[in-house]
Structure formats: C-alpha cells, structure tokens
Amino acid sequence: MRKQIVAGNWKMNNDLAETQELLSHIKMQLVKKPEAEVMVAPSFTNLYSTFEALKDTPIKVAAQNMHQSKSGAFTGEISASMLKSIGVTTVILGHSERRAHFHETNDILAEKVNTAIENDMEVIFCFGEELQDRKSDKHFEVVEKQLKESLYQISEDAWSKVILAYEPVWAIGTGETASPEQAQEMHAFIRKNIAENFNEEIAENVSILYGGSVKPNNAKEIFAKKDVDGGLIGGASLKATDFIALVNSF
Ligand SMILES: O=C(CO)COP(=O)(O)O
C-alpha cells in the first residue's frame, strides 16, 4: 500500500522566531496521530531548529533544495552530506520556482536526483506543466519529458525513495486549483507511464502528491481521487490550523 502524505513547503517564508511559533502551533494542534505521513520543509536557516523541535513528533523534515555536487567551490550551496549531518534525509527537487528562477533544467535535476539517491536520501520530485502547455494540449507530453529526463534513469530499487509531486505551474500560488478530475487524470497518466517504463508494482507503490492552491476547502475532494496520494502545500501550510485541517483531510 502506498503512503498518503501531506507536506508543507514553506518556501522563503518565516524567520527563526516565526518558524518556532508555527511549529509550536502545529505541535499543539496535532492532537491525534495522523493517518497520513506529515512533512514540513523550512528554509535552510531553520532546518536544524525545526528538526530538533519535531524530534518527538511523527512529523518529518525536508529540505527545499540541494546541490548536485559532493562538496567544493559552490558558494551559497548546500550538499547532501550537510543535510544528512543534521538529520535531514528528505529533499524537494525540481520545484517549478527552482526551474523558473534558478534555471534548473531537466539535466541538472537528473544530477540532483542521482546525488540524492546515491546518498540514500528520499526525494520529493516536483514537475508540472505551464499554462500555455495545457492550453495547447501538451501537458501530458511536458510531464512525460520532465519525468524521462530527470527521473527515469534511476534503478528500480531507488523508487522506494521517490515521492512524486505533480504541481501544474498555473495552479501554484494563484488560487486556481486543478479540478479533482484534472488532477486524477494526470496522476493516472503518470502511474501508467511509470508502469510502462518500469513495472506495475513500482507504479502502484509510488505516492503521487498534488500541489497547487490546495486549501482546507478543496483538499478532501482532491485527496479522495484514486491516484492522488496527498498534497504538497505552499500557502496553506504557513497557517497551523489550515495545515492541520489538510493533514486530517483523508
Ligand atoms: O508550490 C507549491 C508547493 O510546493 C504550492 O503552492 P500553493 O499551495 O501556495 O499554491
């Protein structure tokens, strides 16, 4: 059985004090053991304190990015071993904001994925089409290319370390969500594509999250779809009550 997951991507929000406050509210409100796996991804400066604060909870901590090289002259970058040294073993890769603002190509992302897998890290791999792709009916093609060029080089064994996050760019931070049917249609396409390129078992076991304007008022309907295994949440993960409502949306 594949896992259901709710992950909060906090992006470049919250300083140390704000992070501590959000964490204490989340911990206070998480009164029952969640059915889904819960994760939060704070900024690099707040990773260690978040990891420490959540040690006695079921909530996992993920990084929002990582460099593909082992170490060296890459000013401003963070390596896999640095993350692991503070206990963080999950990393988000390929977010559309990294692709758009920091020029992360499918090739660079393939390297990042490989580095994460070599380091035995779990990867939340993000991908999704832009508005013009959907308008010109190219969304399946674009998504398939993103998966093929950055992810399908991994071994069958490595899939146990992969979580997928389908995030249509036109739905991120815009208030416009993919309809539950649009999400289901794409998730089913992805699962079929994985079955064709790998095998049925891998396709069935990989969790595919939806991301893009998921809120407490639309989550239940989206998460109820057969091939949607939870969400990668931006805006709504910054408010403890909303985030906990999402965690309890299954
Ligand atoms: O980018 C996202 C999560 O990674 C989604 O962001 P929003 O939930 O703010 O649309």
From TrEMBL:
Annotated localization: Cytoplasm
The alphabetical list of record keywords is:
Cytoplasm, Gluconeogenesis, Glycolysis, Isomerase
Q: What class of enzyme is it?
A: isomerase
Q: What is its EC number?
A: 5.3.1.1
Write out the pathway annotation from the protein's UniProt entry: Carbohydrate biosynthesis; gluconeogenesis; Carbohydrate degradation; glycolysis; D-glyceraldehyde 3-phosphate from glycerone phosphate: step 1/1
Q: Key word Repeat present in the record?
A: no
In terms of InterPro entries, this protein maps to:
Aldolase_TIM (IPR013785), TIM_sf (IPR035990), TrioseP_Isoase_bac/euk (IPR022896), Triosephosphate_isomerase (IPR000652), Triosephosphate_isomerase_AS (IPR020861)
Per UniProt, where does substrate bind? 9-11, 173, 213, 234-235
Kindly identify the residues recorded as the active site: 95, 167
Q: Please, which domain of life does this record's source organism belong to?
A: Bacteria
Function statement? Involved in the gluconeogenesis. Catalyzes stereospecifically the conversion of dihydroxyacetone phosphate (DHAP) to D-glyceraldehyde-3-phosphate (G3P).
Sequence similarity: Belongs to the triosephosphate isomerase family.
The annotated subunit structure for this chain is: Homodimer.
Q: What is this protein called?
A: Triosephosphate isomerase
Please give the organism. Autumnicola patrickiae
Lineage, please? Bacteria, Pseudomonadati, Bacteroidota, Flavobacteriia, Flavobacteriales
